[in-house]
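Below is how a single chain appears once it has passed through the pipeline. First comes the sequence as given, then the structure the pipeline wrote out for it. We keep one example in the README because the format questions we get most often are answered faster by looking than by reading.
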Amino acid sequence: MLKVGAENILRSCFQLKPEGIFMKKSPLNLIVGGVFAVIGFYVGYSIFNPPRGADSTDKTLAQKVVEEVQVEGFEEEGEPTIRVMGDKSIQIMFNFMPPMFAEEANREAEFEKFDEVISKVVGVPVIWEDRELFIIQTPPDGTVEKIKNWLSNYHQKTN
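Resulting structure:
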């Protein structure tokens, strides 16, 4: 019964011609077409125009860089960067891991568990997030300076 009703509604709204399907001009079709036009406009507008006050460039607190410290003396080809984030976590970003000097001197093995080495230096767990990114979620005070000094003097302590 429902199927027959739906077919009748479709037949009453649309007219099949050799050129294609056309809507018949009737009050019902004008209303249905108008509703679809309004819905289509609203959906399309909503997708491409976020609500006011919603800045698509907003970052969560954890993603905002509060301070960025450049380290000098660790890697000539690309020095690491220490970032303090809005949630007080610290990110250590290397340009290469293992560093270029390690590959040239065949010292890659000492960087296989570099997260554990950094963890021993700072005294808290370190997450090796990506190949070149290390994260310290709950660093104690003075961690940035400790890491910067350790990385700057890395070659003096390992030679």
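The helical segments are 2-13, 27-48, 100-104, 114-122, 143-152, 154-158.

See the next section for the split statistics.
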